[in-house]
Structures
1.
Amino acid sequence: MRAAGLLEPQDAYYTMKFVGSCALFGGAILLALLIDHPALLLADAVLFAFASTQMALLSHDVIHRQAFRQKHLNVGMRLFIGNVLLGISHSWWDEKHSQHHANPNHIDKDPDIQLPFIVFTPEKIAEKPRWLRPVIGMQAVVLLMVFPLQVVAMYWTSFVHMATARAPRRALQWFLVGVHFVLFGALLALIGSWLMASAFAVVYLGVFGVYNSSVFASNHKGMPLTEDGKRLDFFREQVMTSRNVDGHRITDFWYGGLNYQIEHHLFPTMPRNNLPKAQALVRAFCEERGVAHYSTSLYTAYKEGLVHLHAASASLRA
């Protein structure tokens, strides 16, 4: 990877990516202020949600130091994109995502699969409250139903995180998140009637949640799980618990490069535009060692995840 130059900074690429994402984000806000027609305004809410998810994907790259590697610039971009533009504590997401990378698909330690109404193995059903079990019995459907609520959940967990002593720059983070919600509230107030503003907010948050959730849902769900006492070495654990989605220019843009999940987990600081080039090297390395490098279509990726969840809760439907 080093010899191929795939770990080198990509300043020009990320500068253009940041400028383009800001233009899309700002353009969606400007359109919201200029449009009067209800249908067009709601369509703009969808565009705004798309732009926000693209910003979230850029924030992911920043936190991994893929984008801006100078310390002060990196911290500044985390605060600006995460706290100001998205209203989400950058340090909360960093903490959560770092735990995921250290423990991918671990049934007890990966925060991405620690959901109160979801089980990934039948054995986990016994640990759940009885009143939740009817919901868990339908968990494959329930997971899709809660996608629109994901951003609201991220707001809440950010608030909880910033209320704790472990959150760095707590006062600054609270202030910047407050700036986000003041500006978002002002945007809704300028849209017009409370009914139209409410509809805009609901569509925005719902689409943002669905898009953001869909990017991460296909990467690990339905892949092998790990647990204490049965963990693998770093290389095999990162590869075998991850699923790639077949690359294409549209897929790469939609996923922000996270469809190359295996390569990203092995080299989390690698700039996203180099991940497709790394795939051939990683696949060859895996073949030499008899380790499965799994890549599939977008449809199959979601299907496998949902089928796994449906099977894990089968006893509750007996």
2.
Amino acid sequence: MRILVLNGGSSSFKYALYEISQDDAPTVASQPLFREDLERLGTECRATLEPVLRRAGSVDAVGHRIVHGGSYRAATWITPEVRAAISGQAEVAPAHNRLELEAIDTVEAVLGTRVRQAAVFDTAFHATLPPSAYTYPGPYEWFSSDGVRRYGFHGISYQYATRQAAEVLRGTPRRLLVCHLGNGASLCAVREGRSLDTTMGFTPLDGLMMATRCGSIDPGIMTYLLRHRQYTVERLDEILNRESGLLGISGVSGDMRAILRAVADGDVRAQLAFDIYMHRLVREAGAMIAVLGGLDALVFTGGVGENSSAVREALCKQLAFLGVTIDPSIDVQSELDQNIAAIGSSVPVLVIHAQEEWEIARECWRLLSHR
């Protein structure tokens, strides 16, 4: 089977073509026939995707990462009803769903309906959240009538990291904390392979401080700004999603690499941005560990999680009371999944290379194999 994967994120657009045996269930991630990571897809979505589709040639399916699936809790073929549901969630995940809809429309315009398209939802992994975790403590009608609840995101990454952690450790950890740290960032408490709690909520804005998103803040700030700054809803949305986080505090960048360079140069605001980022990460990690009732393994994944030793070391230092220690001499710059825990550490600490495109391809294979 030849499966083309289109992965539109908040800061990049990735695509990859995989060839998977029709008969053998895919386990270990295989190398794609080709793969590219664009910083931004920009306004030329159709023009960019048309060369991608021509390069891919004949394919059996096209798989899309869909950030917000609403009530859809598993990967599914895209139908008019599914497309309408994705469109209905565009307001909740504006940085993602609209781009993904444009990609779906472009594929259909170029390939027609002869090639099936699959929606693989970032929210699906969190279908196992208990009501106590997904229900917000507002009026119950928010949930029952408006569908306002914690959905959670980065589920495709968590699904892969959870399974891969079991491969590396030769068994599924009972209590696993996965840190997906990238342009968007979140944590997931995983018990025996199932999502128990996560930091992102009704939208991807909740939880940790991120590159340009504020994460969790006092909701009273919103009403205060609306009353006293005369912000429009649109302006407030722009500030919270694109002008906050590392960028908003540092005034330098939302890129952790640029923040750390500025810190090394003595930039006070960059240092404050890093300190806030780590404070939020430590606080939320502690909450997830408490929900789990302990910690049997810790995983870092995503661009920052995989590449920033400063972030990993700072978090693990704060978790030393749990017996978490890492060996800073281990080189984690390769794409190999590794245990970087020091000898004698009570908890394995894994760095797992994010494989969202492969996970999407596996879900497409599953749909094709059960047609």
3.
Amino acid sequence: MSRTALLTGGAGYIGSHTAVVLLEAGWSVVIVDNLANSSPVAVERVAELAPGDLTFHQVDIRDTDALTKVFAERDIDAVVHFAGLKAVGESVEKPLEYHDINVGGTVSLLQAMRGAGVRDLVFSSSCTVYGDPSETPVTESARLGPTTNPYGRSKLYIEEMLRDLPVSEPGAWRIVNLRYFNPVGAHPSGRIGEDPDGIPNNLMPYVMQVAVGRLERIGVFGGDYDTADGTCIRDYIHVVDLAEGHLAALERLPTIDGCIAVNLGTGQGYSVLDVIRAASKAVGRELPYEIVDRRAGDITAVWSNPTHAREVLGWEATRGIEEMVADHWRWQSQNPNGYSS
């Protein structure tokens, strides 16, 4: 018998890839998305890539009544919660919007879930909850916070909220907070990928928009960090590996007691210049860049210890940086203007 997962923000970058992986695994998928920073074309392409039981509702997760109607229409077994704003720099400029949508939207979702009797949840958290970690690689037992930007704080607030639920209803809630690192890449078909609204806030889409000619050169935020080449180091993970991590979490939810946290990363750190070099190789020419001022909210270096994910979820990342940039370039080159191409 097929199980049904509701994906908030399921038309977005990570949500759409997760929808494909779930459909391929035999799950039924209900996508809820307000399309504020995503496209209905992504949902159409998900259906094309993985035919199955897929439905879509254009709903803002802050609309509890609308969410309640969605839950009433289907027997939902579990929720994967992606919906929210995700740009570190933008969050510094727009903190109220981030707390309204990320934190307030999650409260609304949890109220709808509780009303529908659904207590199984996989939450799209972030390594930003660790703040500027005192040591790397980062394990799940590392100190949380202080976070360095409103985006990270919103994720940390949500995690705290989720940890409160099993205390209030012992034995009812089963929750996995997936703290992922830096998603990049695209589905190998090139049909779905990252399509940011406006100038990208994240490195890889910025690099690829330069490669395709939409932007003139890559702005590298800071060249004087305490790293080998002076640029920030991050743990980049292929979005399909990440999607498979969500499937693994859903499959393990029945064995979870309360609320747990799991890092999803590769355990390997790459600098900004490492990524630019790898992308240049994939594209076949040197991509121009310039060092600019540091960006508010950024930290020097962070990468994961992925041991816990192997032990708890039976999952590990298998795709390297070359595959990440090759797949991302395939998406961008086939869709130079994203879903509006």
